[in-house]
Every structure is written in structure tokens, then in C-alpha cells.
């Protein structure tokens, strides 16, 4: 089956593209290529459940951009390029989320990291607009561009709100004796 998958990926050049038209039959594209894309993502993120989420995100992105595919390369290659970028991006965002939690003195062992009282206290100190940007970026993993679109503001404003929000959160946490002591260690 693995040999069949790689052979089909190579044979899915422009001639076979007509049979797998993502504009008309994206469900067929999904069904045919899901396992190969999932295996690539799983090898990058090293977590089967997270890999399923990232794979779904990659297929959503491919679906939304299916009209941009140029049948000069293989469909599988195009899908894998999207999926690998999504997987690498997901790893970056998880690293940033872990860093943020570490910066505020919280371990990331909780299923809902924002339930920690210190993080909640630090977030509560932010203005709602800054809090929205910080939560969308670090908790939900949105990129600045996506946050700008969601909030209807320029990308630079998103960056400013996040930077100011983090600075303000650090000040709040440094004012708490146990957190300030732990940060100095």
C-alpha cells in the first residue's frame, strides 16, 4: 500500500489531474490523499491526535485555495506543501504558547492553560482589545494577519497590542511575590 501511495502521488501529474479536480470533486481529493498527508504531518508533529487536527487544517486551507492550484506539478505535492507548512507553523505556535506559559510561571500541563489563576489574573489586567489579540495569538494560534482580519485592524496594530499586552502581563506577574521569586531563579 505504501508503494501504491507513492506511485499514485507521482502519477498524479497534469494528465491525472482531470480525474481529480479539486474544484469539482474535493471530497475525492480528500479521500485519496488524506492518509499520505496525515503520515507526513504525523512525522513532523509526532502526536497522532494533533496530526489529525493539523491535517484537517491543511485540507481546509487547500479547499479554500483550490482555485490557485496550477496543474504543473502533482496534486499530492501541492497538498503536502500546504500540510508541511501547516505542521511547521503549528509547531512554532505550540512553542510560542509554551514560552508564554513559561514566561508567566505556568506549566502547560493543563488541558486548558488559560484556566490557571495567574494567567487569568494577568489577562484580566489587560484592556479588552489587547486581551483579544493576546488570546487569539497565543491560545488559539492565529497569525497576526488572521487576527487583523478577525478584529478589523491593521497587522501592525495587532503586533503592538500583543507586545504591549505581554509587557503588561509581565508587570502584573512580577508584582505577585511567588511569581517574581520563581522568575529570578
Q: Mind sketching the topology for me?
A:
Blueprint: H1 2-10, H2 14-17, H3 26-45, H4 48-64, H5 75-103, H6 117-124, H7 128-139, H8 144-151, H9 155-174, H10 177-184
Helix pairs in contact: 3-4, 3-5, 4-5, 6-9, 7-9, 8-9
What attributes does this structure have?
Arc Repressor Mutant, subunit A, single chain, Rna Polymerase Sigma Factor, Chain: A, elongated, 185 residues, 73% helix, mainly alpha, disordered N terminus, 0% strand, disordered C terminus
Can you tell me about this structure?
- The structure is a single chain.
- This protein has helices spanning 2-10, 14-17, 26-45, 48-64, 75-103, 117-124, 128-139, 144-151, 155-174, 177-184.
- It has two domains: 2-93, Orthogonal Bundle (Rna Polymerase Sigma Factor, Chain: A); 104-184, Orthogonal Bundle (Arc Repressor Mutant, subunit A).
- The protein has 185 residues and is mainly α.
- What's the level 1 CATH class of the largest domain? Mainly Alpha
Number of domains: 2
Per DSSP, what share of the residues sits in E-state strands of 2 or more residues? under 5%
The tally of beta strands, per DSSP, is: 0
What name is given to the CATH topology of the largest domain?
Rna Polymerase Sigma Factor, Chain: A
By secondary-structure content and strand pairing, the structural class works out as mainly alpha
CATH fourth-tier homologous superfamily of the largest domain: RNA polymerase sigma factor, region 2, helix turn helix motif
Overall CATH architecture of the largest domain: Orthogonal Bundle
Q: What is the oligomer described by this structure?
A: single chain
Shape: elongated
Estimated radius of gyration: 21 Å
Largest beta-sheet details: none
Q: Tally the helices: what do you get?
A: 10
What is the H-and-E element order? HHHHHHHHHH
Mean pLDDT: 75
Q: Note the gap between the termini.
A: 53 Å
Into which percent range does the helicity of residues fall? over 70%
Which regions have little confidence, pLDDT < 50, spanning 5+ residues?
1-19, 109-115, 180-185
